[in-house]
Write a structure and sequence with these properties.
The complex is a heterodimer of chains A (about 400) and B (about 130). Chain A is mainly alpha-helical. Chain A has one domain (about 1-404): Up-down Bundle (Amino acid/polyamine transporter I). Chain A contains 18 helices and no strands. The longest helix of chain A has about 35 residues, at about 75-110. The radius of gyration of chain A is 20 Å and the shape is globular. Chain B is mostly helical and about 130 residues long. Chain B has one domain (about 20-130): Four Helix Bundle (Hemerythrin (Met), subunit A) (Up-down Bundle), CATH 1.20.120. Chain B has helices spanning about 5-15, 20-45, 50-75, 80-105, 105-130. The longest helix of chain B has 24 residues, at about 50-75. The termini of chain B are far apart. The model of chain B is unreliable at about 5-15 (pLDDT under 50). The chains are: A mainly alpha (about 400), B mainly alpha (about 130). The interface of A and B includes residues 255, 267 and 270 of A.
Chain lengths: ~400, ~130
């Protein structure tokens, strides 16, 4: 009975915590600019994420190591330091985007510009980190994030032609705006396969004291929870394809995005969109802040646990305090969170091999995994998707810069 | 010397960044006109709050002023720039009026401005269809 409850809670938190500003913005831009044509990118990203999250939990449950601890131990400090710099930079940009997302949601609800929200929002996130426990951050924020299910309701209410939508699950070449098409595809992959999620998940498994008996639970949570999460992203894309694409609206600003659900849900659509963004970004901001602090603390061998009092893991707490404060600065100066989001998602795709390649080595190392090492399927899927994302990112990003 | 190569590469890349083409600018204009129409329809149906609607119409107006100026200075000769200038100025006027009418909660006048904006959108669409594809 306890395990069923754990599985249910795990699935619910995976669904509630899946969407964040990156996945919403990229899916919305894809739907607005290319209709259903980029659904395949969401599918591919979700599939890869299912494998990666399952692997993160399995590594923690079997080896009792987080990804960061195992990477540092197996590859040594110089290599780990390169990974640390790359991941910290990319995660920091994503944190700026998430805090900005909360600010933008509050802006459309109150009319007060997002730069004014930078300090209050960062303070609330910091207080949650300082006072909260791991389960409060993991479960509480994700429960609030369940409001994002309203995207699925909106998609069904618009009665899409499911047959036409299904064609989008197969990759096709665009007729025009080719550079933009591939740039958005890469951004979707970057938003779906966020490395911070893996670090958060493996650290969470250690915080929750998983052992080998959790392997089946981990598989179910990763498989079902992430699949439903991916379905939420697809719902965003479908709604944008039905609402914005026919009108020729390209989502450049958050003010345009706010209209996403007003056609399907005239009475509550506007508020539901704002609340969805508010809670989704809030949950993601907590998870990213925690992931960055985990990364530094586990890499440098400091005490770390969200369940310890700050006096017991002072350097861990100092790390997230500094990171959250620093992330508020660009927003104070009015840096557009949507632009930061798009850039950070594309850069995430470029940085993926740096995070995933050592992780794949670890997952095939008998010293850490014993008989629970990766099979050929997970190795193949993850390798193909990561290489694809990297190659497309290397080509599409310069083309997008040169093009506009 | 070590720094020279990345610097040259960065400068070349920045130099290669070209401004948006007239076609892209026209798409952006149509996108913001459609956004204004959607916001206005939403305000009339009471699906968007007043403050958001007013601020978004003001943002549309501001953005359209900027893109229109850039577009009119780079239009290909095949396009009737006087007609485009006139219809864009008219559209911006309607959007500006609608933003003001929200404060006065004047729905009948607001509806009239929206109808005129829709007519302008059609004209912009026709002029845009006459633009040579790049």
């Amino acid at each position: 009975m306890k395990k069923i409850l754990q599985i249910t809670l795990g699935i619910v938190t995976s669904v509630g915590g899946f969407l964040e500003i990156g996945s919403v913005t990229t899916a919305m831009q894809a739907g607005a600019s290319f209709g259903y044509q980029l659904l395949w990118a969401v599918l591919l990203g979700t599939l890869c994420l299912i494998f990666l999250v399952e692997m993160s939990g399995r590594l923690a449950a079997v080896s009792k190591h987080t990804i960061v601890e195992a990477t540092r131990e197996r590859f040594g400090f110089p290599f780990f330091f390169i990974v640390l710099i790359g991941m910290a930079l990319v995660s920091f940009l994503v944190l700026v985007a998430e805090l900005g997302g909360i600010g933008l949601a509050l802006q459309i609800l109150t009319g007060v510009g997002f730069p004014w929200w930078a300090i209050p929002v960062s303070f609330v996130v910091w207080v949650m980190m300082w006072k909260g426990t791991f389960s409060l951050i993991e479960n509480g924020a994700s429960m609030l994030g369940l409001v994002t299910i309203s995207f699925v309701v909106a998609a069904f209410k618009l009665h899409p032609d499911w047959g036409t939508a299904a064609h989008g699950l197969l990759p096709t070449f665009p007729d025009d705006k080719k550079a933009n098409y591939w740039f958005i595809a890469v951004s979707i992959l970057g938003a779906s396969i966020s490395p911070y999620l893996m670090y958060f998940y493996s650290s969470g498994a250690i915080e929750d004291e998983w052992d080998e008996t959790y392997i089946p639970i981990n598989r179910i949570i990763a498989g079902i929870g992430m699949s439903f999460g991916g379905f939420l992203s697809m719902a965003v894309l479908i709604v944008a394809a039905l609402v914005f694409h026919p009108k020729g609206i390209d989502v450049e600003k958050f003010e345009q995005a706010s209209l996403l659900m007003t056609t399907a849900l005239p009475k509550w659509g506007f508020t539901l969109f704002a609340l969805s963004m508010l809670f989704a970004c809030f949950g993601a901001a907590l998870e990213i802040s925690l992931s960055i602090a985990y990364f530094f603390a586990q890499g440098f061998g400091w005490n770390w646990s969200e369940d310890l009092t700050p006096s017991k893991d002072a350097r861990f707490c100092l790390t997230y305090t500094v990171i959250i404060m620093a992330a508020a600065i660009p927003l104070l100066f009015g840096v557009d969170p949507i632009k930061v989001t798009i850039i950070s998602m594309a850069l995430t795709a470029v940085a993926l091999p740096l995070a995933i390649a050592p992780f794949l080595f670890l997952m095939n190392d008998p010293i850490y995994l014993g008989e629970h090492r990766n099979g050929w399927l997970s190795n193949t899927v993850v390798t193909i998707v990561i290489l694809l994302s990297f190659v497309v990112a290397i080509i599409a990003i310069p083309l997008e810069i040169i093009g506009s | 010397m070590r720094l020279k190569r990345p610097l040259v590469l960065a400068v070349t890349l920045l130099g290669a960044c070209k401004p948006p083409t007239p076609e892209e600018q026209m798409d952006s204009i149509k996108s913001w006109l459609a956004t204004s129409e959607m916001v206005a329809e939403g305000w009339l149906r009471h699906t968007n709050p007043d403050k958001y609607s007013r601020q978004t119409l003001e943002l549309s107006h501001e953005t359209l002023v900027q893109i229109s100026t850039d577009l009119l200075s780079s239009l290909p000769p095949a396009v009737d720039s006087a007609a485009l200038d006139s219809v864009l100025a008219s559209s911006r006027g309607h959007i500006d009026q609608m933003a003001r009418l929200i404060a006065a909660k004047n729905s009948p006048d607001f509806r009239r401005q929206l109808d005129s904006l829709r007519a302008d959108e059609k004209t912009v669409e026709q002029l845009s269809n006459g633009m040579p594809k790049q």
